[in-house]
Amino acid sequence: MGVGTTPPRIDSHDKVTGDAQYPADRAPDDALWAKVVFTNQPHARLVSLDVSAARATDGVVMVLTGADVPVNDYGLTLFDQPVMITIDHTGASDVPCDVSRWEADHLAVVIAESVETAEAGAAAIVAEWEPLPILSDIDAALAPDAPLLHPENGEGTNNYHSYRIRKGSMDEGWARAAVVVEATYEVPYQEHAYLQPEAAVAYVDDEGRVTVEVAGQWTHEDREQIAHSLDLDLDRVRVVYPAIGGAFGGREDMSLQIVMALAAWRLSQRGETRPVASVWSREESIVGHHKRHRGRIQARWGADAEGRIVAVQSEAWLDAGAYNYTSNKVLGNLHIGQGGPYEVPNARIDSHAVYTNTVPGGAFRGFGGPQAAFAAECQMNRLAEALGMDPVEIRRRNTLRDGSTFITQTPMPDGVTLPQVIERCAAESGFATGPDAPTGGTGRPSPRPFSPFASLPPSTDALRRGRGFACAFKNVGFSFGFPERCEAEIVLHGDEGAEKPERGELFHAGADVGQGAHTAFLQMAAEATGVPLDRMEGRFSDTSSSGDSGSASASRLTFMAGNSILGAAEEAQKAWRDGDRPARGRFRYVPPPTEALDPETGVCNPNFTYGYVAQAVELTVDVETGHIVVDRVTSTHDVGRAINPALVVGQIEGAVAQAHGYTLSERLRVSEGRVLNPRFSTYLIPGIGDMPAEINSVVLELADPRGPWGARGMAEMPMMTYAPAVVAALHDATGVWFTEFPLTPDRVLAGLRSASGVATTARADTAP
Amino acid sequence: NTADADTDDRVLDRFSVIGSTVNGRLVRAGGAVGVTLLDWLREEAGLRGTKEGCAEGECGACTVMLDGRAVMGCLTPAARADGATVVTVEGLAADGALAPIQDAFIRTGAVQCGFCTPGFLISCAALLEEHPSPNPEQVRLGLSGNLCRCTGYRAIENAVAAAVAGDAGAERP
């Protein structure tokens, strides 16, 4: 079985028997334990640090501080973060290392014989801090007298990164507008909440390489950042991923990678050969890794009487938190998404990333796209309302299609299938297409009674039904001129005289974060080589055996890995025909180039391809309690070609669940630079009973001209449109537009009670 | 039951060794006082299939069967397993043959990252013991103590249905 089939996942047997090993399961019995000590200071200068008592604690083997870090800075796209906060600056980095800018900045690593002794050592550390003003949000960071969090970058402001789009003439656009809609949207944080908290095991391997077994998304980038901070050659560092317990973008940046590599390296220099392990608690995980960005988008859109968009003016701010992580890249995605998936003749868009003393924003399924799509799709639905037009019809009139010019003033890559996706979603969901169809909350089937808790009898009088529609694009692959590439190696084994190989091996670094990538890789390798799937073996996610695959992100892995596998198969088959035994084929796939945004106009070719999504949501809201039940979501996707149809549906259903939580229940409370609810008991991700009653996953297979077997990326797409579709449905049910979420019952009630419809609970988020 | 009675009469201190029938095998190990059943299973009994996701009883990744009931291993004192019978994910398969619910998880795509899977399997096993043919509401109730961030739960519901129906059951379309 190869492409287009659904064989069992290659890892599923081990995962149902308990044999699958995640990083925390890999610690041998004699492992030392490492405790990473956070500063617990959102903004303060380190005045003194005394670890002597920690070092003297029974069972403590070693205490590492910033003085032990050769190059005390790191970062995925900018080196703006110290590995550890320290007074003893080594001089090899530009970042002032004595200032803690985030409560989860690292202060020390205590290595001990056991978890308990490591904790005891950590408790014996004495640090003295000089408090600095805490910039707790974007407004505080942009205040004229705000201290600079990163003076080393020379920007002179905490708004350290901005983009512009200047297209057409705004005056002409507004002059043609029959309707104008304007709103300010506040988008919330989201925590990844992968079930496996951060963990790592580190040691120096038999070939002298500092080795870290960890759950990440990009082995070679982890290795690069470790090598940078430890000032080691790349070939002296090895990164291996065992089973990974979910990622969703949350493992794209460093957590334990650098400090655990440092620990293993310093231990080995002292002659200590035992591996060292560390496991974060859930609290440490939620406090200690980045989030989906919160932000604000002010949007003003105009359309002519026929519903055609004539002007888009938009300005957005992202709370980047204390360090950049991938904020500059996320900002780019947010930037080009603010015009929606539409033809926009005139646009003025400004986007800003702002440093604050809060948890860093970073990669999370959609990567800036969902925030942009929330504003854009709410604006589109408001335009439809203002014009008395059907929400599907207005999209039909504006959608990007083949030959369209994108908002960055370059042609869209061929294969723009959004028009087909919109039509299919409208048809599958029964969404009205004609102008006479009802668009209000009346005339719908009776709502299914529900109540907030079981002992309260449902009251049908208070229930209102509504439905909403939204659509979006999302880039597949790295954007804006990043040197995108992916490598694969295939080895074919068999007898010299044999016509066909007996078995094959695939070497690939691409991370299986749970999505099933490795199964899909082997299916593609089997298809490309003709070797039966059960005789194609995978050697995965180890920098010592594979070339660079790029990350499991940007909905890129099936697309990029598939093309690399096709190339490697061709090379291997050529070697096979030449008589090589085994026959080896290596290939590095490089997609069509992309370009950075022009700093003044934003003109560029930002991406080499996109995926397309449309969703229709039907919901019921109790206007007396504020509770919302989603009755049905129709999630429609062009995946180009479903390499493994069950895995595709798994991604859709899982992403809908994650989007459902983002939209309705997940509220991360951050105040004065501190996460107040770093637990699953207070940060509420959907459980089985919270899910939409019906998820209708609709999969189209309209080939991407550049995709392997026509495949497109798809894993982020369901995340893009759910929040605006729910807001549209809530408006349909109640007549009130909400501009912020999650739509928790208190926020819904407050919104319904406010005449203007502007939710009044925004400050509740920051109240202590 | 008599095991409970025995436990009640004993005073456990930090040197105590507890004995528990884990997956049909008598395990006697120390380090049982002041630790959770989850930690005792993982570190003393050497069974690392059961996971810690939150350590506060919210996510259910640590779910194990204690005398036939699904319990949160992260909240259960290890000493409570003294003289008791424990089943973990490693004990679901018999002589290498997967239990129907394990097989169903594979067939319906209920496994993604897999970190929640051991806990879900135990909750499913407990559910099916109580309701051999559960209705959708019983499924939701029985699995309401387990969180999954990958699948959206639909495939897990399908797995329960498939396990009930046997081989002819609800495969994915």
Topology:
The complex is a heterodimer of chains A (768) and B (173).
Chain A (H helix, E strand, L loop, with lengths): L11 H6 L14 E7 L5 E7 L1 H5 L3 E5 L34 E2 L5 E7 L2 H9 L2 E6 L6 H5 L16 E9 L2 H7 L2 E9 L11 E6 L5 E5 L4 H12 L6 E4 L16 H13 L6 E4 L2 H7 L6 E9 L5 E13 L5 H11 L9 E9 L13 H19 L3 H8 L19 H12 L33 E13 L10 E8 L9 E6 L8 H13 L6 E5 L16 H21 L5 E7 L20 E13 L5 E11 L6 H20 L5 E2 L2 E2 L18 E7 L16 H18 L10 H9 L15
Parallel strand pairs in A: 1-12, 10-11, 14-15, 18-19, 22-25
Antiparallel strand pairs in A: 1-5, 2-4, 2-6, 3-5, 7-15, 8-13, 9-10, 9-12, 13-14, 16-21, 17-18, 17-20, 21-22, 23-24
Helix pairs in contact in A: 6-7, 9-10, 10-16, 13-14, 15-16
Chain B lengths: L1 H8 L8 E5 L2 E5 L7 H8 L18 E4 L2 E4 L12 E3 L12 H9 L8 H14 L5 H7 L11 H12 L8
Parallel strand pairs in B: 1-5
Antiparallel strand pairs in B: 1-2, 3-4, 3-5
Helix pairs in contact in B: 3-6
Description:
The complex is a heterodimer of chains A (768) and B (173). The N and C termini of chain A lie far apart (56 Å). Chain A has a seven-stranded mixed β-sheet, sandwiched between helices. Chain A has a five-stranded mixed β-sheet with strand order 7-15-14-13-8. Chain A has a four-stranded mixed β-sheet with strand order 16-21-22-25, with helices on both faces. Residues 433-443 and 756-768 of chain A have low confidence and may be disordered. Chain A has 768 residues and is of the alpha+beta class. Chain A is built from 17 helices and 25 strands. In chain A, helix 6 (219-230) packs across helix 7 and helix 9 (327-337) runs parallel beside helix 10 (369-387). In chain B, strand 3 (63-66) and strand 4 form a beta hairpin. The N and C termini of chain B lie far apart (46 Å). Chain B is elongated. In chain B, strands 2-1-5-3-4 form a five-stranded mixed β-sheet, with helices on both faces. In chain B, helix 3 packs across helix 6 (154-165). The longest helix of chain B is centred in the last third of the chain and has 14 residues, at 117-130. Helix content of chain B is 34%, strand content 12%. Chain B is an alpha+beta fold and 173 residues long. The interface between A and B is large, with 55 and 52 residues.
